[in-house]
Amino acid sequence: MPHGYDSSETNVHFMGYHFVWCPKYRTKILTGKIEERLKQLINEKAKTMGCEVISLEVMPDHVHLFIKGNPIITPNQIIGTIKGFTSHELREEFKECRSRIPTLWSRSYFVSTHGHVSEATIRKYIDEQKGM
After folding, report:
1. Considering the domain boundaries, does residue 104 fall inside one?
2. What CA dihedral angle connects 115, 120, 124 and 126, to 10 degrees?
3. Whole-structure pTM value
4. Residue 92 belongs to domain spanning
5. N or C end of the chain: which has fewer CB within 10 A?
6. Continuous H helices in the chain
């Protein structure tokens, strides 16, 4: 199996997703203890979903997460689960997450897919299959 890929009984995969999301009204609330706890919670939830956090950066008003997913979980399920879990936990633990904004996260998010190879490499591989 190629380096960095995962496998199950029926597939070999690398499902890399880059997510970006913000607190409601882009409030700059993700600092200090909240930032540290958010990182812990994201890593904890990713592990329970069978995902792996590759890179995580928390800015005061947004979060960047590069995560290796599982092909049986959609990107929407991944981000929905992470946002729901972290909102619940942070709002329980930190008063400022309840008092400053009506809900912790905005409803929207950005997602893009990433893998180990470039689009050009995939196109070349597919084109070369015609000659076999």
Report:
1. yes
2. 50
3. 0.85
4. 6-129
5. C
6. 32-48, 75-93, 96-99, 119-129
